[in-house]
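Format notes (please read before filing issues)

Several people have asked whether sequences and structure tokens are stored in separate files. They are not. Every record keeps both together, in the order shown below: the sequence lines, then the token lines. Line labels are part of the format and must not be stripped during preprocessing.
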Amino acid sequence: MIDTAQMQRVGGQIGSNPAGIYQDNRGRRYYVKMLESAAHVRNEFIAAKLYQLAGAPTLSYLPTSHPCQIATEWVQLDKRYIAHFTESERKQAQRWFGVHAWTANWDAAGFSGDNQGVVDGRVVTLDLGGALAFRAQGDPKGKAFDICVNELDRLRSKEGNPQAFKLFADMSADQIRLAIDMVVAIPNAQIQQAIIDNGGSPKLAEKMNARKADMEIRKSLL
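Then the structure lines:
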């Protein structure tokens, strides 16, 4: 359990939410964000579990003593900006396009192309605060987060999402199908269990399974 009151702050905010780097008495470091609500924290934690269920690399999330804080293990990045990726690293990032779309992660690439990083040669999504039902700074998405996975088009559109466009727009139909398959392969029961076990609702589980089904339909139309 991460309790920042018992730790030393050794670094400041990096993303758009109030946050800091904290170090415990054994020298281990964590990045801890303060979010708008406990619901937003739970939302991001569930998003991380769904990414991991699909096999998509994320940072390691840890429980915190404060209900509005979310913590990840601090890692040293080899690269932080998509603009610095090699072609091989871009292909790695594109592999998880379907997971970003499924979870409605509008900030998959980040405002400055800084939400995908490289750690020990592996491309990792660095922040999941903008996935599922909330925007990155805590505003609910409302009806924009429904059972239709319009993100399959939205994340490849230059309008309003230039960094995601740079990363995903050149994907071929076959590459998109393979990315969708990463999600479609997950059994509905596993999705439901991951959501319920981490404080989510049956309604969210139903929606995520419906979104998966929508992606399978869209795959057949590519």
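For reference, the curators noted about this record: Residues 156 and 178 are 16 Å apart (CA to CA). The mean pLDDT is 95.
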